[in-house]
Design goal:
The complex is a heterodimer. Chain A has a six-stranded mixed sheet with strand order 1-14-13-17-15-16. A four-stranded antiparallel sheet of chain A has the order 2-8-7-4, with no helix packed on it. Chain A has a four-stranded parallel sheet with strand order 11-10-9-12, with helices on both faces. Chain A has 14 helices and 17 strands. Chain A is of the alpha/beta class. The longest helix of chain A is centred in the C-terminal third of the chain and has 21 residues. Chain A has four domains: about 80 residues, RNA polymerase II/Efflux pump adaptor protein, barrel-sandwich hybrid domain (OB fold (Dihydrolipoamide Acetyltransferase, E2P)), CATH 2.40.50.100; about 160 residues, 3-Layer(aba) Sandwich (Rossmann fold); about 70 residues, Ubiquitin-like (UB roll); about 70 residues, no CATH class. By secondary structure, chain B is α+β, with helices and mostly antiparallel strands. Chain B has three domains: about 55 residues, 3-methyladenine DNA Glycosylase II, Chain A, domain 3; about 80 residues, Alpha-Beta Plaits, CATH 3.30.70; about 90 residues, Alpha-Beta Plaits (2-Layer Sandwich), CATH 3.30.70. Chain B is built from twelve helices and eight strands. In chain B, the strands form four sheets. A two-stranded antiparallel ribbon of chain B has the order 1-4. In chain B, helix 2 packs across helix 3 and helix 2 runs antiparallel to helix 4. The longest helix of chain B is centred in the first third of the chain and has 28 residues. Classes of the chains: A alpha/beta, B alpha+beta. At the A-B interface, strand 16 and helix 14 of A face helix 5 of B.
Amino acid sequence: MLKTFPKGGVHPPENKLSEGAPIDILPLPEQVVIPINQHLGAPAEPVVEKGESIKAGQIIARSKGFVSANIHSSVSGKVLKIDKMPDSSGYKQTCIVIKVEGDEWLETIDRSGELKKDISLAGEDIIKKCAEAGIVGMGGATFPSHVKLSIPPGKKCDVLIINGVECEPYLTSDHRLMIEKPEELLTGISLLMKALGVEKAMIGIENNKKDAINKLRELVPGYKGISVHALRVKYPQGAEKQLIKALINREVPSGGLPVDVGTIVHNVGTAFAVYEAIQKNKPLVERVVTVSGKDMGKPLNLLTRIGTSINNLIEYTGGLVDSTAKVINGGPMMGKALSLIDVPVTKGTSGIILLREEESRRKKTGPCIRCSKCVSVCPMGLEPYLLMTVIEKELFERAEKERIMDCMECGSCSFICPANRPLLDYIRLGKASVGKIIRERKQK
Amino acid sequence: MSSVVLITIISLSLLGIIAALILYFVAQKFKVYEDPRIDKVEEALPGANCGGCGFAGCRNFAEAIVKSETFEGLNCPVGGAETMARVAKILGREAPEVEPRVAVVRCNGTPENRKRTSYYDGATNCTIVHNLYGGETGCPYGCLGLGECVEACDFDAMYMDNKTGLPVVIDDKCVACGACVKACPRNIIELRKKAKKDRKIYVSCVNQDKGGPARKACKVACIGCGKCEKVCDYDAITIENNLAFIDSDKCKLCRKCVSECPTGAILELNFPPRKTAEKKEPEKAEA
């Protein structure tokens, strides 16, 4: 019996259409739009000016504060403007627009495909370099990695967990990375282990990616302390707390962090980015993006420069098909629908999914009959139907008592509800309101 | 038999008298003095408990107004001048002059003016959509059209116009309590000074984008060109973040700015037709 997390979970259709497609390199776009806020925390501050010529890999916005991340140019060319441009939410934020001229990289960056396995840096320097390279969590949450790697005093970490679960339907970017760059990935994991000072690392991979599991199992004997674990397929196993429970059977307390139970979780994409930053001196300027959909000619995994327009990716894979009703940024469970497709790919863009009408349209909402299906699938053990009701009635204190802030917005409740109730919509609204109340209380 | 009845009556009466005495002395001892005027003021108030004055209910407002020396910052928007005059009479003070206000929806993004760029079929709640994305149209500032303000109105003074998809304020019913202003996640609704015959001139737009993008999203967007600011004789118009704002306290409703606006973002409502207005204002013809 394979391991998994015990509470809740759902089984959405997997639809991993692009899992056989090798990572393809997207041709350079004509211009890139790089938002200064691609991570959780404070936005970075632009350090380039209009008209300046820059090289790929050059820093263009510096982090402000500890929980923030540097942003580097993904291309070489001229800064056209620094202006407010719409991002994937449709709202405007400050972006640096660069016109692409050639493909010149900073000399310090090693762009050869040569594998570098020797680790020369000390743990602290690795963390410093991660911060310098602007690495953030590549799974989608985009939390600055150096913050996660700096263990607060008094806390201890004994095992590093690497998240290769990729439980979202359609997405295959992590899967392809594990198959195509396994040695780089394992070196990246060794670097993370050194930075954290742990002896043990566990890679969790869902059992629908047998080729990746076999490939990594073949190679791990060459690396000290790393083991590969197959997990039963269940959504949302890729969530931090669920993965910890599945792999090492520890439960992160409510409101706590993984480090409270002695572990840190990083995504495989992040481990690969760490490898490139430390061994190759290359900052985070490109990532693998899955572009997929049932009616698409060829679903692909594309190595994309940050700031490329999502429109470019869709065009490259054959353009928008007529039957497309919804374009999603991220996976179909947790991703957000796009209202504009001419918006940039950011550090957290893991996939672009084109959904058909029948897949995307929400069905008519009915009344709640207290069937409690949402309660049984909630991986956090919450009562979504109750949370929705109290939020509709604006009983925010009650919602806080019912632990609304523990919700990680996986969407299992909305997915399973037979009455198609917009449970997660209201829970999100409640989380925003309760979060505000909590912040105000703290300020007092 | 009769003695039993007698004893019962006497003993119960005695018990009653003793209890009454105890209660009387306790009440004397722990008496809390309350200004009798509070009750009177409360009676004079509308009793809607709408919260428009900023207090939780009419009672709290009455307490505050009796306690305060002046009427500064205290006003019952629902009752208006009449109620405030009555309250002033009770307290033996002079009634302050309060200008009645009315809610105004500052968005004119009808389907003709503002093209739909996406289709939303999630929960029908403005705040949810606002937190999620820019909205169904290209304007990330304008009305989302899901009617949270209408739901918030306690006085049936608002309704959704099905044709335009925008909320409409019924001027006669609006008491300017401000519930809709608070409900709107995009701060589109504003309380403006009520003029004679409900005449209104206001910038019906809250888009803070520069001219190009604003115009692209909506035909009647304010592009912040500043023409209205220049033409205004009363310094009532200010431009901030590419958006014009007409201060209703300074505006004399001369209507100069309306014809100056290149996009038609400034609306004039409940005025007589233009022709007569131009006769009265010969300057207009030159412009």
